[in-house]
Amino acid sequence: MTDIAQLFQDHLAQAQISQASIQRMLDLAAAAVFAVTGALVASRKQMDILGFLWLGVVTGVGGGTLRDLLLGVPVFWVIDPAPVAVCLAVAAVVHFSAHLLGSRYRMVLYLDAFGMALVTIAGTSKGLDAGAGPLVAVVMGVITAAFGGIVRDLLGQEPSILLRREIYVSASAAGAVLFVGVMALGFSRDLAMAVGLIVACLIRVLAIRFDWALPVFRPRPERPPH
Q1: What residues does 166 pair with on adjacent strands?
Q2: Element housing 215 (H / E)
Q3: Contact, 143 vs 66, CB < 8 A?
Q4: The dihedral formed by the CA atoms of 120, 126, 131 and 132, expressed in degrees to the nearest 10
Q5: Is the pLDDT of residue 12 over 50?
Q6: Which of 120, 181, 197, 226 to pair with 28, CA 20 to 30 A apart?
């Protein structure tokens, strides 16, 4: 019995290490992709190298920072500065290569779609790991996805993603809900993450391609007094 218990504990420890590695890779990939979008906005605004670095970093780690603060866990880039280093490197590369891209705004949109899907899954996953319930984990995923883009648009003086009619937050929410839902059905976490990521990214890309938008509020005319 002691040997069995020890084997179980070893297996559990290995699973936790594996999950931590996946979370770290997601954070790094999401930071890199969002840093590219921030740097491309800096190129559209004709900023200097410091502007590229600043927008790249705050866009790359902004959503994850808010997520960790809300969850009450150590901020991921404070305990491991690799995401910041990745953002700086990516922003510097974009500074010297952005002129090679023809339609930078279109590139920002499509990269942002992939980055949004990545950080949605990373945020939802970290919410679950922190002991949050499914609903809170989904909210963490959506907040993580939206906040970096909001900061980027605010600093770059671009129209905010929350004020545009395009489908964005709803695509993030769909991916997060699917991630949690597929896990609840008993499937593996890796499969659930893949399904959520693909669906979130696909919905956003299709929304960009076909100009999809949710119905907007339209005030009704006031009734004349009787």
Answers
A1: 213
A2: none
A3: yes
A4: -20
A5: no
A6: 181
Within 13 Å, how many C-alpha atoms sit on residue 143's CB side?
A: 19
Query: To the nearest whole number, what is the mean pLDDT of the chain?
Result: 86
Count of CB atoms within 10 A of residue 28's CB?
A: 21
Q: What is the pLDDT of residues 122-163, one digit of tens each?
A: 999 999 999 999 999 999 999 999 898 888 888 888 877 766
- For the question of whether the overall pTM of this predicted structure is more than 0.85, the answer is no
Rounded Cα–Cα distance for residues 38 and 65 (Å): 16
Q: Reduce the DSSP state of residue 86 to 3 states and report it.
A: helix
Roughly what angle, to the nearest 10 degrees, separates helices 2-44 and 104-129? 150
Span 42-94, pLDDT tens digits: 998 999 999 999 999 999 999 999 999 999 999 999 999 999 999 999 999 99
Residue 128 in contact with residue 22, Cβ under 8 Å? no
Residue in the structure block whose two tokens are 């990521």: 197
Read off the pLDDT of each residue in 103-129 and give the average, rounded to a whole number: 87
Helices 49-71, 134-155: axis angle to 10 degrees equals 160
With CA atoms as reference, report the closest residue to 153 among 116, 182, 100: 116
Q: Which residues contact 204 (CB under 8 A, 6 or more apart)?
A: 113, 116, 117, 167, 168, 171, 172
Res. 5 pLDDT band, cuts 50 70 90:
very low
Name residue, tokens 């705004």: 105
The answer for 215, left when phi > 0, alpha when psi is -120 to 50, beta otherwise, is beta
List the beta bridge partners of residue 213: 166
